[in-house]
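Give me structure tokens for this 563-residue protein.
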Amino acid sequence: MPAAPTRRDLVLRDLDASTARGDELDLVVIGGGINGAGVARDAARRGLRVLLVEQNDLAFGTSSRSSKLIHGGLRYLEQYHVHLVFESVSERSRLLRLAPHLVQPLGFLFPVYQGDKNPLWLVRTGMWVYDALSLFRSPEPHRTLDPAELARLVPELRTEGLAGAPLYFDAATDDARLTLETAIDAARSGALVATWTKVVGLAPSGSRIRRVQLEDALDGRRYEVATRAVVNATGPWSDALLGLAGSATRPLLRPTKGIHVVLDAARLPVPHAVVCRHPDDGRVLFVIPWGDRTYVGTTDTDEQVEPGQVRASHDDVRYLMRAIERYFPGREVREEHVLATWAGLRPLVSDGEGGSSESDVSREHKIFVGEGGMITVAGGKLTTYRKMAAEIVDVAVAELTAHGLLTRTLRKAETEEAPLPGALGFDATEEGRARLAAEIVGLGTLGRDVAAHLVATYGARAREVAARTAGDPAAGAPITAGRPDVLAQVDFAIDEELAATIADVLDRRTQISLRDGAHGLPGLDALADRMAARLGWSAARTEEEKARYRASVALQEAWRSEP
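Here you go.
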């Protein structure tokens, strides 16, 4: 019996039918990271005909490899980027409202020691400025803890020379799921979202790109779509796409690598994130609580590797270990305690000089209209993606209008008020979360820990996932031993969230590859068999998919074999 068509299958059928009819799109958005998903959502909500294409999975690149923070960028105050801080804290407040299941307040301790570059009084002044820029709407007001309070709260923290520590509040998120839900809302608003679909050609008509040639990266099928405008939101792949469009300019980007290491929380317990300055170069790092894990990051080094192959090096890991040793000298955290790593490239805009340090390269975004009218966005921050997307669509609409390609009236996108899917009808209070978890337990197939995990992951959509176990108790079994993720999430990822490979599920629909010390490998065979049945994979294809996932784990672990 053939497998039922997945949501991805239906998208490609729609794309095929649209091509056969000769339909013309208003906008093809290339790149399924947070910026591309945000642009597709904003444009579709305005009433534009939109296709979002991604050569891999949604959030495959930088958008699932960040520090997973929604923050104002306190350190930008040191660089006098006050406008960037104001923009960021404003967007932080919006995301806390629009996606409370994915964006949640997180406390940050900023320990200050005698002899530090910035004394305690100056850091405290900066905290007041930070609160003022957020119009005093931070999740909680900041306060300063003295050494005795710190010793009780974080007994592992180095006390020698400790002057005190302000405690301030930003937010943390699941960056991959934030991207995913943004893309899901784009699709609900009318956009076509095609993952594992690579752009292989850009064909002009006159002075503008009017046709985009596509290839299904999983089975090789070809498509060609007509469009009135193209947005390049490919992040660290931007220069490659500009080259495909025929732009012969100097490189637009100066990509820098950031890596993180994951530890067992029992090995390095912290009740709040801890802001650290690296003992060698003074760079700001974070030690961040993550449920039963703690992660530490990030580095900032120039990197020219192909973006899909970026990984942590032994030197990167050792750099982070040095900071942990400095701030938590009694914990004896060693390299062998690292459970997982992740690495990503920041698509920062080059200043053309190359003389500035990596950390000094601006995090602000820029929007360019280049060869063939292609609109490129580079730089920017996860926190401000919604606002960036609105600006990009404004540019696209202006371009279309100026060239006589758009004459109809559009709606307002209202993305500043519209919740993401998991927030619709979701009570984000502690009591509301507990009620929803109890409702899921009441189905009789899932325990409390799994129910709480589903609520924290999906928000209101947790009901849909849990309901799949009512008629199929086997769907309530764990994906891998020792983790709360269950097989119903695999089915849901395929049917509703465009997952097409094992890595899509273990890396981004769940976080098993990062949270599980064995990266989910012990449960790989059972997971692959379930996905094969749902996706119609042959035995050979199933083995290929398992090998592909093992290769991604090997890349993540490659640092261990370096001298």
